[in-house]
Amino acid sequence: MNCSYSPLTTALKRMKRSGSVSRPAVGKSAASIYSVARSKKQQKKDARKAEKAEKAAQRQQQRQTAAAAAEEGPFAANYGDVPVEDVQSKAVSGRSWTKVGDLDEGAAGRAVLVRGAAQAIRPVSKKMAFVVLRQSMSTVQCVLVASADASVSMQMVKFATALSKESIVDVEGVVSLPKEPLKATTQQVEIQLRKIYCVNRATPTLPINLEDAARSEAEFEKAEQVGEKLVRVGQDTRLNYRAIDPRTPSNQAVFRIQCQVGNKFGEYLLSKDFVGIHTPKLIAGSSEGGAAVFKLLYNGQPACLAQSPQLYKQMAICGGFERVFEVGPVFRAENSNTHRHLCEFVGLDAEMEIKEHYFEVCDIIDGLFVSIFKHLTTNCKKELETINGQYPFEPLKYLEKTLKLTYEEGIQMLKEAGTEIEPMGDLNTEAEKKLGRLVREKYGTDFFHFVPLSCGCTSVLHHAML
Amino acid sequence: MNCSYSPLTTALKRMKRSGSVSRPAVGKSAASIYSVARSKKQQKKDARKAEKAEKAAQRQQQRQTAAAAAEEGPFAANYGDVPVEDVQSKAVSGRSWTKVGDLDEGAAGRAVLVRGAAQAIRPVSKKMAFVVLRQSMSTVQCVLVASADASVSMQMVKFATALSKESIVDVEGVVSLPKEPLKATTQQVEIQLRKIYCVNRATPTLPINLEDAARSEAEFEKAEQVGEKLVRVGQDTRLNYRAIDPRTPSNQAVFRIQCQVGNKFGEYLLSKDFVGIHTPKLIAGSSEGGAAVFKLLYNGQPACLAQSPQLYKQMAICGGFERVFEVGPVFRAENSNTHRHLCEFVGLDAEMEIKEHYFEVCDIIDGLFVSIFKHLTTNCKKELETINGQYPFEPLKYLEKTLKLTYEEGIQMLKEAGTEIEPMGDLNTEAEKKLGRLVREKYGTDFFHFVPLSCGCTSVLHHAML
């Protein structure tokens, strides 16, 4: 077991040093967080640029600290940079931290301590400023008003407004209810700040503005209609700064849903007496034949990366496991640029003994998918809404008892809709999509089995939506 | 998503064809089911041998079927080979199957239908035989007595006793309670057989006898004392026939416990707001430096297999995930033959933000391990007992609140026990083991944190037992 960790500061600094991910992943990876390769020249250029920016930021910070010291008021201890010692395992303060996502109306009047990223900083006057703090998908508005009662000085307001966006900030304050609903934050409360400290300053000019990165198409269109031109963050920029892009609420939600899918997959199969296994990825031959295999040397001996756990799953069944599953990477050296070809992806794979009929497998798959759908609908509401905010989608339709559509019926439906298919031929992508739409209209489901009516074949199993 | 399956018959046949695993995995793999490479020559030889044996078995079977047909009695339909059509998805019979592990005293008097592997076949007379059926870690004794009342003929007894060991068998019968406790089976009931069918015959001479493979050292010693010499199944044979060896109860238990450890690892961390992620395994540079990296070409571009998800975990923390974990393969091209060096293993990895002190991580690790220990003790009793039966071990000792042993105290304990350690030096394996024993004696735990007393270092974290 390898349980490792590193303080946030170190990781952030490392990112800042290199300008972005220093050792990027190779190529097309489905479930990867960082998956882009850039030219070394570009990397060096970026690194130099980042270094310059960092030095400028340091100078700026020193100037500010000096200025603050000069003007220091009676509340000087209520703001400033957190001494490095405080985040370096020197002492346990025993303070308790509140999560941004937990800040609801019930917290009103309570004193809280929160650490988050300063997503937005809005100076109103010399005496007043707003700071929006973010944690994962949640944001909260912090209000800073200079007043002796609140122990807040004008220097403190100045300190806050000079912070760079995305800096890591600790705040202390009292939760209050705003007079009007807040539009710019997820949490419907404010924190009236008493103290604000910076744990780690971000580079003043970030390669990605998170507000830009989180915008939906609708927002772009709306702006265009009133003649406003908003900044778009392109795919390349997102991938080049892959440690920043996942901070957008919809990316946070996507990864969380992905995790829940894998988790529910295992949970359901475990409840059906499956055993989770891990099969080798470094093997002596190709798993499925074909040329699409990554080859390498294993101590001088030719070896391949597994294209599938297929053989090992079958051998596990022979080995007496009855039902097995695996969640793990699969490698395919396919040189095709389509949405359906990936060189590395995470496979959710299962294998089971059949007693008599492959419908036994269909039943497990039905139960599995329906349980995943239900779990997401019930437990990932916030995540689904967050994604829908940036990338609108229609809610998934599924039946409690999954529809088994016979091949003949499917072909007939396509025929009636004007699409001719060769009898017993494979459906092409277009026909598949069309059938999906027809089934949704007729049966009210996006998920169904497409099965041969009266044939002993156990390998045809088709889903409209995977 | 890739949900594939194959009927047991196909998988068994494939195994029989090739004599063993046809495309074995490469080298040393910790969590792999099949992880051995054999010479091609040996493989071919084995394949020829297996083919011969199979042909002989087929001839034998044909002779038997012919003989049975000749002598056929009034109960001929109650035994025989299952027609291939019955396991080829032609029809759903709707019959319900009972699991061997569920056969307890409460089932007495009930008619049951069971499918299992014929682990042992013991002819008593022409009129009577015993067949022991196995499913995973459970075995049950089936009794076959020729009598018109039970619709059992002598031909049926003959059919059963002629079955080859490890054949897949369907039986129907009535559960009864034996007069004396059964020693050879896990289930304390018998099935009085009415029907017996063979789904798939195993090769008559198997490379591994499961009773030999499941024996403990104590049994070997006991036999030796009375001058008996029992067959030992060597490691090479086990690895060469990796689809048979996992059928032993202790191997079944090991894989099930391994699955539960990974499962509980994820479950506990999810409950502590961790997000499960999957990081790329095919990357552009080494993860941790050093030469121990597998290199390959990715579309003509140099690439490496990930030695660790380290950088990606840290980047995920920068990306706003706060706490992440991963269960996935790790690759290290280490040319060292020790128990601590593996070329491919499954890493249970976690990364989290620290607010102030690395004790925050210690607390998570404490809770994680204690929850895994508790889960195994409570939910894997049968598995632990099964392993203990073949490989005896002392039960794990752990504390509800994990001991934090300071480095100074540990060194002092070793000193008092006569082992001198260089101050602030690393412990060698021997000293580490000794400290583990001393701590178990003094504090009654096998699991503890070994921490520096007053230093800001966040990377020293030591467990006596991993």
From TrEMBL, chains A, B:
Cellular component terms per the entry's GO annotation: aminoacyl-tRNA synthetase multienzyme complex; cytosol
Location (main, coarse): cytoplasm
Subcellular location: Cytoplasm
Pfam families: tRNA-synt_2
Catalytic activity: tRNA(Asp) + L-aspartate + ATP = L-aspartyl-tRNA(Asp) + AMP + diphosphate
Region of interest (Disordered), residue spans: 14-70
GO biological process entries: aspartyl-tRNA aminoacylation
Keyword terms of this UniProt record: Aminoacyl-tRNA synthetase, ATP-binding, Cytoplasm, Ligase, Nucleotide-binding, Protein biosynthesis
InterPro entries for this protein: Aa-tRNA-synt_II, aa-tRNA-synth_II, aa-tRNA-synth_II/BPL/LPL, Asp-tRNA_synthase_2, Asp/Asn-tRNA-synth_IIb, NA-bd_OB-fold
Biased composition (Basic and acidic residues): 44-57
Family: Belongs to the class-II aminoacyl-tRNA synthetase family. Type 2 subfamily.
PANTHER family per record: ASPARTATE--TRNA LIGASE, CYTOPLASMIC (PTHR43450:SF1), ASPARTYL-TRNA SYNTHETASE (PTHR43450)
Name used for this protein in its record: aspartate--tRNA ligase
Organism: Panicum virgatum
High-level lineage: Eukaryota, Viridiplantae, Streptophyta, Embryophyta, Tracheophyta
